[in-house]
TrEMBL record:
<feature type="domain" description="DEAD-box RNA helicase Q">
    <location>
        <begin position="32"/>
        <end position="60"/>
    </location>
</feature>
<comment type="similarity">
    <text>Belongs to the DEAD box helicase family.</text>
</comment>
<dbReference type="GO" id="GO:0005524">
    <property type="term" value="F:ATP binding"/>
</dbReference>
<dbReference type="InterPro" id="IPR050079">
    <property type="entry name" value="DEAD_box_RNA_helicase"/>
</dbReference>
<dbReference type="InterPro" id="IPR014001">
    <property type="entry name" value="Helicase_ATP-bd"/>
</dbReference>
<feature type="domain" description="Helicase ATP-binding">
    <location>
        <begin position="63"/>
        <end position="232"/>
    </location>
</feature>
<dbReference type="GO" id="GO:0003676">
    <property type="term" value="F:nucleic acid binding"/>
</dbReference>
<dbReference type="Pfam" id="PF00271">
    <property type="entry name" value="Helicase_C"/>
</dbReference>
<dbReference type="InterPro" id="IPR044742">
    <property type="entry name" value="DEAD/DEAH_RhlB"/>
</dbReference>
<keyword id="KW-0378">Hydrolase</keyword>
<keyword id="KW-0347">Helicase</keyword>
<dbReference type="GO" id="GO:0005829">
    <property type="term" value="C:cytosol"/>
</dbReference>
<dbReference type="InterPro" id="IPR000629">
    <property type="entry name" value="RNA-helicase_DEAD-box_CS"/>
</dbReference>
<dbReference type="GO" id="GO:0016787">
    <property type="term" value="F:hydrolase activity"/>
</dbReference>
<keyword id="KW-0067">ATP-binding</keyword>
<feature type="compositionally biased region" description="Low complexity">
    <location>
        <begin position="17"/>
        <end position="28"/>
    </location>
</feature>
<dbReference type="InterPro" id="IPR011545">
    <property type="entry name" value="DEAD/DEAH_box_helicase_dom"/>
</dbReference>
Length: 403
């Protein structure tokens, strides 16, 4: 049972007016329904058509304050249902005017597409027009859409800044600003762009901020740009981790490929693998090596053309691709429900990244496996991870070392 905690962070200054409370997710028989909330009829129909049955914990927690017009900062992970959590109150509030009434900022092109797709499902029947703007695509189509009129813009900060500089996007009448995965946008280097964008929006806007972690810059955003925010923290990370069988393997760098291949029988024919490497060159090299070994494997990283990235993600999501090898940045925001194994071919360099990675398996009540290769120089990273996750991370021996 997930626990929802609505509390101020104890490790950073919180505005005195910040609302605090503590609550626990209801048992299944008492779970709320979307019809329990004051939502428009066409939105309720769209929610049902999109396949939603009951609100997820994050949705049930944020809908009341957001529908009341409150600012919130929520801590929840990819796959928790947070797109609908901010999308439902946004669509409920806006009317189709052709003037940008809401802007959603996301860290990556892939997440931009995913959020836009989800919002379009929820906006069915509302008349609202939604546009995604991100780099790697031609500007002309975006210019045309903005000239015709758009109600919600979903974009990466860099492309939004580009449009603001050209005068093709106006956000001075925005009612709602949403920052999705704020900590990831900080990691990528978007901090300055985000603050420039926020300063261009009305002070009386409603601001929704979502972040898995609360680094100093995110804390500063909360203090500087939100008004009496409600903090909603979904304590589900460790519940997710607990459903993942976690093993680590000591391995020499030269033996990693052979060690990975030795698990082919364990993986089975139906396995869906997500492999993480630290560098783009390592991603490409491993994709080539596995392809030569007869695996249906492809690379995903920021150095690829956008069209190639899109085709790869679609193939992986549709099940046409068995193995995806990715960098941390490229895989951010991916929400694919049937990943059976996460392989840390290169160990994460901090516990938070480890938890984010392995949380991509064991979704929707399923179990999953996380395998981490530990090289000669990786023990400080391993010890930090073990200190965070505890005894669930167990040592194991590669089959090639058991011969």
């Amino acid at each position: 049972m997930d626990t929802l905690t609505l509390t101020p962070e104890s490790d950073f200054p919180t505005p005195p007016e910040t609302t605090t409370a503590t609550t626990t997710a209801a048992p299944p028989a008492e779970r709320p329904r979307f019809s329990d909330f004051p939502l428009r009829e066409e939105l309720l129909r769209a929610i049902e058509a999109a396949g939603y049955t009951h609100p997820t914990p994050i949705q049930a927690a944020v809908l009341p304050p957001l529908l009341d017009g409150r600012d919130i900062f929520g801590q929840a992970q990819t796959g928790s249902g947070k797109t609908a959590a901010f999308g439902i109150p946004t669509i409920n509030r806006l009317r189709p005017t052709g003037v940008v009434g809401a802007i959603v900022l996301v860290p990556t092109r892939e997440l931009c597409r995913q959020v836009t797709d989800e919002l379009e499902k929820l906006a069915q029947g509302s008349g609202l027009h939604i546009l995604s703007v991100y780099g790697g695509t031609r500007m002309r189509g975006q210019f045309t859409a903005l000239e015709r009129g758009v109600d919600i813009v979903v974009g990466t900060p860099g492309r939004v800044i580009d449009h603001l500089g050209r005068g093709t996007l106006q956000i001075d009448r925005v009612k709602i600003v949403i920052l999705d995965e704020a900590d990831e946008m900080l990691d990528i280097g978007f901090a300055e762009d985000i603050e420039r964008i926020l300063r261009r929006t009305p002070r009386e806007r409603q601001t929704m901020l979502f972040s898995a972690t609360m680094p100093g810059w995110v804390q500063r955003l909360v203090r500087r740009y939100q008004r009496s925010p409600v903090h909603i923290a979904i304590e589900s990370e460790h519940a997710t981790v607990a459903t993942v069988a976690q093993r680590y393997y000591e391995v020499a760098e030269r033996d990693k490929l052979e060690g990975f291949l030795s698990f082919e029988e364990e993986f089975g024919r139906d396995a869906r693998l997500l492999i993480f490497r630290r560098m783009q060159v390592g991603v490409d090299r491993l994709a080539q090596q596995l392809t030569r070994e007869g695996w249906l494997a492809q690379a995903l990283h920021g150095g690829m053309a956008q069209a190639d990235r899109t085709r790869t993600i679609d193939a992986y999501r549709n099940g046409d691709l068995r193995v995806l090898i990715a960098t941390n940045v490229a895989a951010r925001g991916l929400d694919i429900p049937d990943i059976t194994h996460v392989i840390n071919y290169d160990i994460p360099q901090n516990p938070e990244e480890y938890i984010h990675r392995i949380g991509r398996t064991a979704r929707a009540g399923k179990t999953g496996v996380a395998m981490t290769f530990v090289g000669e120089w990786d023990y400080p990273y391993l010890e930090a991870i073990k200190a965070q996750v505890g005894d669930v991370l167990q040592p194991a021996t590669l089959p090639i070392y058991q011969r």
